[in-house]
Design a protein that fits this description.
126 residues, globular, binds iron/sulfur cluster
């Protein structure tokens, strides 16, 4: 979705048995998707849906919304490099990394860093 585009429709779907994805349609007709939950196979809960509504504004401009969510949550042993390349071009990379550090996101590529790299960064920052 283009940075700054307005979201005119939004829904939550399962991309796989364990990945819950929010899909937004922008005012330009573009479509974006992002992972909003993982690790469960049940229907979206009220709290997951509220989480979508309350997403930080910067997430609307996340470049990863134009790519498969699985790219940013690769299987164990798979490369993070495709996700890092996307993050390197993302306008909201700093916001994304700050959010992941603040919420201690354990998994996935946020701001171009893996969970292990974010934990190391947090330890260095004290
Ligand atoms: S930095 Fe990467 S993970 Fe974060 S919003 Fe941008 S593309 Fe998505």
């Amino acid at each position: 979705m283009e940075p700054g585009a307005q979201v005119v429709a939004s829904s939550v779907r399962r991309a796989s048995p364990s990945l819950l994805v929010a899909i937004d349609v922008g005012s330009s007709g573009s479509i974006g998707a992002e992972v909003v939950g993982r690790g469960t196979t049940s229907a979206p809960t009220a709290s997951e849906l509220l989480g979508v509504i309350r997403r930080p504004a910067w997430q609307r401009d996340a470049l990863c919304r134009e790519y498969p969510p699985q790219m940013f949550f690769p299987a164990i042993g798979a490369s993070f490099e495709p996700a890092r390349e996307v993050c390197g071009r993302c306008l909201v990379r700093d916001d994304c990394l700050a959010f992941a550090l603040e919420h201690e996101e354990p998994d996935g590529c946020w701001g171009g860093l893996s969970g292990q790299e974010r934990r190391a960064l947090a330890r260095r920052a004290g």
